[in-house]
Structures are given as structure tokens and as C-alpha cells.
Design goal:
single chain, rod-shaped, 2 domains, mainly alpha
Length: 85
Amino acid sequence: MANPKILDEIGSKVSELLASSPAKDLEKNARALLASGFSKLDLVTREEFEVQREVLARTCEKLAELERRVAHLEAELANRTPADE
């Protein structure tokens, strides 16, 4: 059976190799490239998007209510007779 100390040593050596491997550099460079590209785009966070979505929903509700009120007032105006004036 292998000595646990040797297994720990092998594990640490493998971790060192992976940390200094070209794959790690490639991942770091890809992340930097993506971050650079995203910073040039006009993006918003999910939180900002959700806030604006709620604002739009409330605005649509208010607009629908105002449209109903205008339609009601127009109907009242159309139903008026000259004697009512």
C-alpha cells in the first residue's frame, strides 16, 4: 500500500503542474478577452434589468388606466345632449 505522505506529495506536484500549465494561461487569457469584449458592450446587470422591467410593467398599467378614463370621458361627452350644456 502506498504511503499517504507520498500520495499527498504527488497531489501537490500535480496541482503545481496544472497551475502553471498552458491551459491555466489560456483560461486566464480567455477570461480577460471576454471581460474586455463585454466592457465595450452596452450591457446591464440582471438586477438593473429586473428593476426596469417592473417600472415598465407599472407604466403600462398606468397607461391602460388612463386610456380607460379617457374612453369613459369621451363616451360621456358623446352622450351629452345640447340641453346638458
